[in-house]
User: Fold these one by one.
Assistant:
Number 1:
Amino acid sequence: MSGHEGFGDLRELYQEVIFDHNRQPRNFHSMADADHVAEGHNPLCGDQLTVYLKVADGVVQDVSFVGHGCAISTASASLMTEAVKGRPVEEVEALFRDFHALLTDVPPEGRDFGKLEVLAGVREFPARVKCATLAWHTLHNALEGGGTAKTE
Amino acid sequence: MNMNEVPAGAAVDLSAHAADFPILSRPVRGKRLAYLDNAATTQKPEVVIEAERRFYRESNANIHRGVHWLSQHATDLYEGARERVRSFLNAARVEEIVFTRGTTESINLVAQSWARNTLQPGDEILITAMEHHSNIVPWQFVCEQTGAVLKVVPINDAGELVLDAFDELLGPRTRLLAITEVSNALGTVNDVAPLIRRARAVGARVLVDGAQAVAHMPVDVRALGCDFYAFSGHKLYGPTGIGVLYARHELLQAMPPWQGGGSMIETVSFERSTFAPAPQRFEAGTPHIAGAVALATAIDYVLEIGLERIGAHEHALLARATAAVQALPGVRIIGTAAHKAGVLSLVVDGIHPHDLGTILDADGVAIRAGHHCAMPVMTRYGIPGTARASFALYNNDEDVDALVRAIRKAQDMFGGRR
Ligand SMILES: Cc1ncc(COP(=O)(O)O)c(C=O)c1O
């Protein structure tokens, strides 16, 4: 915990990038031909979102989301879609693990998070970690659950 | 006498009492604490903290079991607390007071002991659209267990009960009306006395959820005429983990136990046990003795200040806060009933309640953001949740102003101000 909290930390949390992605979320639409879909729900704050994926050859070809939530969860979902599009599924899962560590634990050394770095401010607000990770958990479920559903 | 209001605008000065609450002097996030989450739980005055501490230092023993002096002493304190609660609610007999863990457990007790053993398939339980989950879910269990049906009195846009619908829904199959006296999500004060009369006229029993009422207005269960009344100590400046069920004597005597264990029995053999009379029959195991004792102290504390005065003070704060946020563009108050307690639920255009809560918190303003365990209310208004400020006797204009300032700051940050 940093000793000096207040506006400084608040600006760490609510950076301009967050406002931008909250106001204009990227890849914010449903996807009729998605092959992986999962819903995420944070009952505490009522955040609700659906993540859509198209995966081919082990690579996330396309990803989108719809739903509603706080600025942190909406921006995080939006940033996530940008971060994972075109990446191999394995890398995506590794990124999720590292991103989670960035918010809650010891950030992995040497990892370049790119724009996702703006969410690191959540560390100082433990009550908000769930908001920032909801989309990622949902993505993870889509990848896992989607796979299972196909085998039926 | 229940709605004994001090005239609007009557200034009540309770400022000296803020000093009774040690926690209020601690800074939070480096800021002066404006604690406005009182509907969730109130802070505790020194006398209550001291009462619990003193019990453990001077009086601690188990009750109803020991022949030794301390046990008798602890029993006297515990039973004295029961008597204090009886007089607080103006119940007729001390045996009508059951100590529980809180409102939730009190309602579940009625659900599992009375309703589950009484209701028949097709019988109806009438609740309202503004109930806390703890006055919804236990009845859903009972409906599953008995085949009874849950009916819900709707609310209008202001967050008031639709009384025509109440009359339509109340019928010969209604066996129970379970209704909150004050809504924790909207602040609406329900004038429950006439509704209780109508329900009893069709032969229904009535449970009143008093969780949000007892700290803000005098309660008289005999004047109300209800069969059951539930509240929690922690919303009345008392400890967590202690609460009360009032139940009319004839009913309580006839109700079977719902939890088995020590203290609730008369005799036990492996073939059969017989049970203690009420209220012991409903207090299986070692209760929260220190909590009951400190609750009695909390009751003394509020009665000394006066519930009418506390209510009037909170009304003045509510009026100030309401006027101030109404003047802000893009702010909508959820719950605009004509008769409200000190609860201000609001939504701000373009700012999710959760974000608002975080930004207010950074300025030391503690409010609750979310659905307030009243998801059906949020659904009714088509919102995910609200930001809720709720007032207590120790709040003041400075707290209200800090709240309003912080909302404006959030609007500045989010660029939502036009
Ligand atoms: C109206 C109402 N009923 C019931 C409860 C449940 O109280 P407790 O959690 O103390 O059991 C609350 C508390 O939030 C409430 O506001």
Number 2:
Amino acid sequence: MPENIEKMEDLSKTDQERLAQTGLEVEMKNRSGTFFQIDQEIKHVASTEKGIEVLTLSDALSKYDWLSGYMWKAVPHDKDKYTRYVHEQKDPKGFVIIARKGSKTLYPLQACLFLANSQVQHVHNIIIAEEGAELHIISGCASATHARVGTHIGVTEFYIAKNARITSTMIHNWGEKISVFPRSASIIEENGVFLSNYVCMQPVRKIQMSPVAHLKGENSVARFNSIVVSTPGSLLDLGSVANLTAHGASAELLTRAITTGGTIVSRGFIHGETRETKGHIECKGLILKDGIIHAIPEIRGDVVDTELSHEAAVGKIARDEIEYLMSRGLDEDVATATIIRGFLDVKIAGLPEVLQNQIDAAIDAAEKSGF
Amino acid sequence: MLDIEDLHVKIGDREVLHDINLHIGEGESHVLMGPNGSGKTTLLRTIMGFSGLNITEGRIFFKGEDITRTPIHKRAELGMGMLFQRPPTIAGLKLGKLLAVTSGDDAKKVEEYSRYLNMDSFLERSINLGFSGGEIKRSEVLQLMIQSPDFVMLDEPESGVDLENITLIGSAIAKLLEKDVHIVNRKKSGLVITHTGYILDYLDADFGHVMCDGVFRCHGNPREILKVIKTSGYKECLACQKI
Ligand SMILES: Nc1ncnc2c1ncn2[C@@H]1O[C@H](COP(=O)(O)OP(=O)(O)OP(=O)(O)O)[C@@H](O)[C@H]1O
Ligand SMILES: [Mg+2]
């Protein structure tokens, strides 16, 4: 890889394509800001929208004294060896996005974390939506085609103030030899909404994460959607946790998982700690070729008037569904692919159309290549 | 159009259809009646080629071709289509998406027929998921109209449909079966299962068959057969040995 890469345009065509598959736009037509980091080097930081600031972590910390109060507030620094590793860094890298009170992004901001030559890439990101702000972020994470064994460790803390809303869409395109350990958590205040979408349709060696939502404000909402495919050799250990600690708080964890030979562990945990809370976990898995889908939905209620439920189903495509479509003239392969595409077709309420299109495109691309 | 010779079908260990013979010519519509569980749906599914139905004896010819072992989609390509009594639900797959595929992305056609069947607001919904009984039938008829098969099998198209929608579904079926085309020029054929006979108002059906316990017990004019069944039940019909 040439040393003089400053922008996404400078990457090779194939690497640009790999990034495009994660929903990132090199030309930034439909984007309101960007953050671009290769290995440990921050290449490009910009925001074009009023009321939205995108800064490197170090700039942000020296510019705003108060920001240090947000460091390690949502994610405990001693949670595990990965958070400790990031916490120990003398010169932590990453981005800070602040959506000022009442601001609204029309187009999403994009954050691109690219692993090229390093063994380890670590980041610490802080994303704040102040009161009434609305912020949409798409983060694409990918590795260079030539990247060998590597590890990505990312701590991301989301703070959603009263009446604010953050949607975070993450599309991964790691390589077969990359291990990924995101550690993220969010604190959601009164009437705040946090929507987190995770898509991984491409091979990865190992990914392990379990983002936590702390629903601390009344009527706060968290929704996690994961759409994942595990190919042979991939281990996806994915979970999400929602702690319902305020009246009226609700959470929904939804997963669509397909294995074509890899392993998927789909965890979900909703903890109803307070009255008038609601939570639901849904995990549907399809085993297309021998592989493992292990769904572990957990719900725990501590008080009366918390309503929690879960449903999980793992199986194959029903024969009668395939034959139904065949009777309409589709051959077996097309019928199967059409059903799979439908299975993965999760329309996410409240997500801007550009981002929904991005998710659809990632799934389409995987479908075309036959997973 | 369709010729069935000495057909025997087993489901598991049990023979459900015994020695079925049926000839349906071009432009003809036939009506299939019979008590619940007698094997009517099984016959239609066997003709369409569904799995789980084991043909132990006999053959099925379609347009002169032996299709006894032909896969389902090839039969569809040859011009067969079927309205399901109980179609499966396919969560996630939008009705509109399927119609786009089966129509060869002919958005105009999809729009026109969806509107005709009052199904335009269902295109973004998962196929049959939460559809009411009548909505399922309209969705089925819509899919068939897009497919436009030469040989149309209808498994109780009117059951669970309110009176207003029977008119709508009936007129769509009349189109599917070219009721307005003179019998001499009519190309489309049909095999229609009905319990009520309401659908007969929308077809030119001259041939009726009664199935009992997996065998044909009676052949004749469908309206006359229906009259007998309505007044004295299937008993009378069985007693009559007019095979
Ligand atoms: N998959 C199956 N497994 C076991 N038995 C079956 C299966 N499908 C059909 N049968 C049996 O075969 C017989 C014929 O069923 P079929 O559905 O063809 O009846 P039908 O004439 O269409 O009845 P209805 O008027 O109630 O729709 C019934 O006894 C039914 O229980
Ligand atoms: Mg039946």
